[in-house]
C-alpha cells in the first residue's frame, strides 16, 4: 500500500491511489550512480512524458518500475503493487503493466495474431477463442487486422511497433510504459504510431512515455518531466516545461531537440 495515497488524494479529490509512485529512488551500476533520488507520480488517467538527454537514466527508471532492474533504495508502487517488497508477486504486477520498447521484441516465428494471443493464454489463462477475439479487437485499434496472419518480418517497423502496442493492450493493462517507441522507426511511419498513442491517451489510458517527440509531448502529455544526470530537473504542465522552461539545463536540452 502506498504511503502517499493520502497526500495524493488530497491533491486531486476523488482520485484513487497513484498509478505510479516513486520516492527517493536510487540505482547504481557499480560506481556509476544512474538514478539519484528520483521522485515521480503518475495519476490514473494521466499521460506523463519523460524527456532528457541520452544517458540521463530514463530507460533505467522505466525498467525499475517493473523490476527489470533492482534499485539500491527508494519506494516504488505501481498499480497498487509495492515493487520494492521482496515478497511481491512480480508476474501479477507485470500483468497490469504494458511495456513497449524501442525495439519491438516481437516473436519472429509467430504470426501477428499469435504474438497478441500467446501471453493472454499462458499468463491470463484465457481460452484461445477469447484471446483471439481480444487480439483482433486490439489489432483493429491499431489498424492491422488485415496483417493478422503475417509474420513480423513481413511488416514495416511502424507496423511492427503497432503490433507491439496491440499485444500489450491485449493484456488489458492498467498502465502503459513506452520507452522511445518511435526512435527506431523510419520517419514516414512515426506518425502512425504517435497517432495510436494519442488515441490511447484520449481514451483515458494511463501512460508514462519516454520520448524525443516534443510536439507529441507538448500536445498529448498532461505533465512533462525533464531528467538530466539521474535527477528530475524540472516538471510541470507540458506547455510550461516545453514552452517556457525554468531551468537552464531544460532550455539547453530543448534548444538541441526542438
Ligand atoms: P537513457 O535511457 O536516458 O538514455 P539509460 O537509463 O539507458 O539512459 O542509462 C543511464 C546510464 O546508465 C548510462 O550512463 C548508461 O550507460 C548506464 N547503464 C544503463 N544500463 C546499464 C547496465 N546494464 N550496466 C551498466 N551501465 C548501464
Ligand atoms: Mg533510453
Overall description:
With 258 residues, the chain is α/β, with parallel strands linked by helices. The chain contains ten helices and ten strands. The chain has a six-stranded mixed β-sheet with strand order 6-7-8-3-9-10, sandwiched between helices. Strands 2-1-4-5 form a four-stranded antiparallel β-sheet, with helices on one face. Helix 7 (187-202) links the parallel strand 7 and strand 8. The protein is globular. The site of magnesium ion has 4 residues, from helix 2.
Features:
10 strands, binds magnesium ion, 6-stranded mixed β-sheet, 4-stranded antiparallel β-sheet, 38% helix, nucleotide-binding, disordered N terminus, membrane, 24% strand, alpha/beta, 10 helices, ATP binding, ABC_ATPase_HisP-typ, 258 residues, ATP-binding, binds adenosine-5'-diphosphate
Write the layout of secondary structure elements.
Elements: H1 5-11, E1 20-29, E2 32-42, E3 47-51, H2 58-65, E4 73-78, E5 81-82, H3 90-95, E6 97-100, H4 112-122, H5 128-141, H6 157-169, E7 175-179, H7 187-202, E8 206-210, H8 214-220, E9 223-228, E10 231-237, H9 238-243, H10 248-257
Parallel strand pairs: 3-8, 3-9, 6-7, 7-8
Antiparallel strand pairs: 1-2, 1-4, 4-5, 9-10
Helix pairs in contact: 4-5, 4-6, 5-6, 6-7
The chain binds adenosine-5'-diphosphate (ADP) and magnesium ion.
Bound molecules: adenosine-5'-diphosphate, magnesium ion
Q: What's the main sheet like?
A: 6 strands, mixed
Q: What's the tally of helices?
A: 10
Task: List the secondary-structure elements in sequence, H or E.
Answer: HEEEHEEHEHHHEHEHEEHH
Strands, count: 10
- Which strand order spans the largest sheet, edge to edge or round the barrel? 6-7-8-3-9-10
Q: Helix share of residues?
A: 25-40%
N/C terminus separation = 40 Å
Rg over alpha carbons: 18 Å
Q: What fraction strand?
A: 15-25%
Oligomer designation: single chain
What is the structural class?
A: alpha/beta
Residue windows where pLDDT falls under 50 for at least 5 positions: 1-14
Amino acid at each position: 500500500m502506498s504511503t502517499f495515497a493520502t497526500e495524493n488524494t488530497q491533491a486531486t479529490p476523488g482520485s484513487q491511489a497513484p498509478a505510479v509512485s516513486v520516492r527517493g529512488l536510487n540505482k547504481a551500476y557499480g560506481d556509476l550512480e544512474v538514478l539519484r533520488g528520483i521522485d515521480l507520480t503518475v495519476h490514473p488517467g494521466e499521460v506523463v512524458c519523460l524527456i532528457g538527454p541520452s544517458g540521463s537514466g530514463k530507460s533505467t527508471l522505466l525498467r525499475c518500475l517493473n523490476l527489470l532492474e533492482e534499485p539500491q533504495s527508494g519506494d516504488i508502487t505501481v498499480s497498487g503493487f509495492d515493487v520494492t517488497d521482496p515478497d511481491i508477486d512480480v508476474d501479477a504486477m507485470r500483468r497490469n503493466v504494458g511495456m513497449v520498447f524501442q525495439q519491438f521484441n516481437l516473436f519472429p516465428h509467430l504470426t501477428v495474431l499469435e504474438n497478441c494471443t500467446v501471453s493472454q493464454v499462458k499468463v491470463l489463462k484465457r481460452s484461445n477463442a477469447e484471446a483471439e477475439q481480444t487480439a483482433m479487437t486490439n489489432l483493429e485499434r491499431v489498424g492491422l487486422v488485415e496483417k493478422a496472419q503475417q509474420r513480423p518480418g513481413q511488416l514495416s517497423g511502424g507496423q511492427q511497433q503497432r503490433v507491439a502496442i496491440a499485444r500489450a493492450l491485449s493484456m488489458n493493462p492498467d498502465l502503459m510504459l513506452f520507452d522511445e517507441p518511435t526512435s527506431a522507426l523510419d520517419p514516414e511511419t512515426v506518425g502512425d504510431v504517435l497517432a495510436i498513442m494519442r488515441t490511447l491517451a484520449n481514451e483515458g489510458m494511463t501512460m508514462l512515455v519516454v520520448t524525443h517527440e516534443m510536439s507529441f509531448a507538448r500536445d498529448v502529455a498532461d505533465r512533462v518531466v525533464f531528467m538530466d544526470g539521474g535527477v528530475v530537473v524540472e516538471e510541470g504542465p507540458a506547455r510550461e516545461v516545453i514552452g517556457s522552461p525554468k531551468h537552464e539545463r531544460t532550455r539547453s536540452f530543448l534548444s538541441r531537440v526542438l
